[in-house]
Structure formats: C-alpha cells, structure tokens
Amino acid sequence: MAFDWKRLESDERQRYDRLAVVLGAVFTVLGAVGIVVSVLTGRPGGATGSVVWLLIGVAVLVAGLRARRP
After folding, report:
1. Is residue 15 part of a domain?
2. Among 2, 4, 6, 22, whose Cα sits 20 to 30 Å from the Cα of 46?
3. Cα distance from N-terminal residue to C-terminal residue, the chain
4. Element holding 56 (H helix, E strand)
5. 5 domain-assigned
6. Which UniProt keywords apply (predicted)?
7. Domain count, the chain
8. pLDDT tens-digit profile of 16-57?
9. Residue 3 phi/psi, 5° resolution?
10. Which domain holds residue 57?
C-alpha cells in the first residue's frame, strides 16, 4: 500500500491553518485587554504596544480564516 503524501500535506496545512486562527484570536484578545487595562488605569500612552498586538492578532486571524476556506 502506497503512502498518501497529498493527504499528509493537506492534514499538515489544516493544522497550521487552525494554529493561525487560534494564535490570531489569542493575540487579538491580548491586545484588546491591554488597551482596556491601559485606558482604565489612566495611561492611554501604554496602549501603543497593545494596539500592535491587536493588529498582529487580527492579521493572523484573517489570514488563518482565509486559508481555511476552500
């Protein structure tokens, strides 16, 4: 019986797509929480780093979701 390399590549690609969606969601939540915390503590200048994490999270999340679509 021959090994199905295409199926392995497809499974691996789906695993990476799922990982991208999860990491994107985590980074997005971390960025949003960081923005809220910095505003509530009265340091809106501290939100700059959180905005960067939020943007990275959204970009990774969108890329992962687009890759999962057939």
Report:
1. no
2. 22
3. 29
4. helix 47-68
5. no
6. Membrane, Transmembrane, Transmembrane helix
7. 1
8. 888 999 999 999 999 999 999 999 999 888 888 999 999 999
9. -80, 135
10. 26-70
